[in-house]
Amino acid sequence: MATADLKSHLKSRCEQVDSALESYLPAPDIRPQTIHEAMRYSVFAGGKRLRPILCMEAALACGGTAESALAPAASVECIHTYSLIHDDLPCMDDDDLRRGMPTSHVKYGEGIAVLAGDALLTVAFEILAGTALPTDGSYSAGDLVTELAVTSGSRHLVGGQVLDLEGEGQDVQLSLEELKYIHLSKTAALLTTSLRLGGMVADASAEQLQALTDFGTNLGLAFQIIDDILDVTQSTEKLGKSAGKDEATDKSTYPALFGLDQSREEAAKLTAAAHSALAPFGETGSCLADIADYLLDRDY
Amino acid sequence: MATADLKSHLKSRCEQVDSALESYLPAPDIRPQTIHEAMRYSVFAGGKRLRPILCMEAALACGGTAESALAPAASVECIHTYSLIHDDLPCMDDDDLRRGMPTSHVKYGEGIAVLAGDALLTVAFEILAGTALPTDGSYSAGDLVTELAVTSGSRHLVGGQVLDLEGEGQDVQLSLEELKYIHLSKTAALLTTSLRLGGMVADASAEQLQALTDFGTNLGLAFQIIDDILDVTQSTEKLGKSAGKDEATDKSTYPALFGLDQSREEAAKLTAAAHSALAPFGETGSCLADIADYLLDRDY
């Protein structure tokens, strides 16, 4: 797909995701209003909706419809948003700015920010448990919940943030192996699960799920390296979040360990590996491949 | 059941619950160790296991076995523990002591305490999604997850904490209606869901689930009133948490609104209503009735 066509495709997917989130999240006038406003403030702060889009495109690649994956798509975005709200707290990364807007705790105070994260984490499982699945398919709502809970829990998403928190402000650089472990936990795991949930809704075969897993793992590692490169090379204005933060906090990153050029090379290699993983899909995997290229070349 | 027999029954249930939690929670040596230690620190801090026991006894009352409800039982205890960790944070109720031990953020720092709560909330859904259910029963793992997510989310458990947070330190007393709403959200909802999940595992009829709901609602309101009475009448040492806190923070409570005598009367009335709700169970509901009486007469 030409870049302009892909951009317009992603934009229309974004609109589908936003409209699903709009319908799945409790209305802002439901009591207590503060929490429902705070949940929506962060969810509708202009995210790229990468995870939900991957979920929908994976369902398509596995022979389902993109629309059948809207519930898991909305669910993974709620998990992503909750993790950002909690990561930004003063007791974690202490960030005031996210997507060009004041972070949740700056806007609502720390107590409500903690609770808004808790509520989004919880509603993610409510939304996911309500997914309509093929009646004679291989996967149940219970399987979807297990997939998301394992990825979001102490061994992966939360675990990665623990390691990040423990590593920050220390003078010692992490080893490449440790760094990769954090990237796998914090970034690749949820991208992979987004893809797998889409596959499960489309009753994917074991081979297809494995292909999505390999694609997601490589894409996730590439995505995080690019993110760390942009933290060095782009402005706060462009990123919509505080730039230069990694260096200021002595955070271990690919650019810090290997420099920018070698980091860019590694991201390109991982993106190529992501492409190869899509082989079993043939032509139906082309949109996922285009997205991988697009993410490699992004500048924000 | 005589009080001594009930106490010994509850103790043996506690041991079953502890052993289930031991097997369901990630081992403390799994990486990252800090988070798995912190999760276990709060879960094994000597809770009364009221919610899991209600879950097990409800399964029994509905004709199932208590043991078949161990997964949802462990799951509701994880939710309860997460909510205590987050409620105790400096940005919420700012409590240093819980069950006679330093709270999670005092022991591990605020960042890890937030993450330990997040991880327990998440693992609750992992455990629940793995519940073994009767193959030809009316309820799926998805139904169980929906039940727990709705109760734990922004409309109930989290919502109640929001109202609590917004009400604290204000000179204005809440109305009785507002206070009841907070108690229903913060306390009665999770007690009721614990009972209902036990019922669902035992393939309860609609009439049985309704009876458990009515029992849980009345029991939950009585439980919270007793809790607020004990905050006034008992020592910090006896309670294992900071006593006299409600008055110090101008918190609206039953004793503050109506005095101790009228509060005790109300708790007794609600306990009687809880008893009546158990009528459909006949003799099989007697253990739940005994627990209600025991909670009314507790002094810690």
Descriptive keywords:
globular, Farnesyl Diphosphate Synthase, homodimer, 300 residues, two-stranded antiparallel sheet, mainly alpha
Description:
The structure is a homodimer of 300-residue chains. With 300 residues, chain A is mostly helical. Chain A has a single domain, classed as Farnesyl Diphosphate Synthase. In chain A, 70% of the residues lie in helices and 1% in strands. The first copy, chain A, is built from 14 helices and two strands. In chain A, strands 1-2 form a two-stranded antiparallel ribbon. In chain A, β1 and β2 form a beta hairpin. The longest helix of chain A has 28 residues. Chains A and B meet through α2, α6, α7 and α8 of A and α2, α6, α7 and α8 of B.
List the SSEs and their pairings:
Two copies of one chain form a homodimer.
Chain A (H helix, E strand, L loop, with lengths): L2 H22 L8 H11 L6 H12 L8 H18 L9 E2 L2 E2 L1 H5 L1 H20 L11 H12 L4 H11 L8 H26 L4 H28 L2 H4 L5 H4 L5 H24 L8 H12 L3
Antiparallel strand pairs in A: 1-2
